[in-house]
Amino acid sequence: MVAVYNYNYVAKFIVIGDMGCGKSSLLRQFTEGAFSEKTNHTIGVEFGTKVVEADGERVKIQAWDTAGQERFRSVTRSYYRGSIGTILVYDITNRESFENLDRWLSDARQLTPAKSIFVLVGNKADRESQREVSESDGEQYAKQNGMLFVEASAKTGEKVEAIFLDLATQIVSLVRSGEVNPASPDSGVQCTKPQAFRSSTSSAAGAGSRPVNVGSSGGSARFSIGSMSCC
Predict the structure, then answer these.
(1) Element housing 46 (H / E)
(2) Potential cystine with 147: which of 37, 61, 118, 126 (Cβ 3.0-4.6 Å)?
C-alpha cells in the first residue's frame, strides 16, 4: 500500500548563528505563532516542523535550531549535512553576532549540499532604537556572499513566515527545474508523491519554462518560479 501524506515534499532546514540572536524564538514564532521573553538557550539542537503551501505544493519543513555556543559546535555541525535551506541569523542590536557570521557561513558552506539556499536574517527588527547593525550592512554582506536577506522580528512575527515560505518556494523551483533531485539521499528534499503521479507530472517537463528570479518586495525576499517539471 502506498503511504498517503498531506504534503508533497519534505525539506530540511537549519537555523544557525550566535547564542542569543533569537534563533529558537524565530522557529517558535514560525511553528507555533508564539513568542516568549524568557527562552532558555538551546542545548545541542531543537527541532520543529510545519507544512506550508509553496507554489501549489505542500511542503513539510523540518527545521533544526542549533545551539550557538562554541562548546556545542562539534555536535551541531553534524546536523548541517543534507540541509537544503540554511537560515543564518544575527541580532541587529548586537554587532558581535554580525561580525561572527563568517564562521557560521564557512561551516555551513562546507557541510550543506551544493544547491543549499542561504538566507541572512537580521532578527529583533522591533528594537530599532537599540540597533548596532544597519540594514545596509546586512544587505551588503548578503550580496557579497550570494544570500537572500531580510530583517525580521521573532517577537512581532514580522516577516518570519516569509523567510520559511520563500525558502520552500525556491526549493520547489529547484526540484521542478531538475537542479535538485529528491531521489538523492543527500539532497535535503524528499518527494512523498506516489510514483505514478511523479511520472505523469514529469512528462510535462519542457512544456514551458521560465527563469527563476529572486527579488525583493516590501523588504521581504520573494521568488518567481521556474520550470513546470516535477520530481
Answers:
(1) strand 45-54
(2) 118
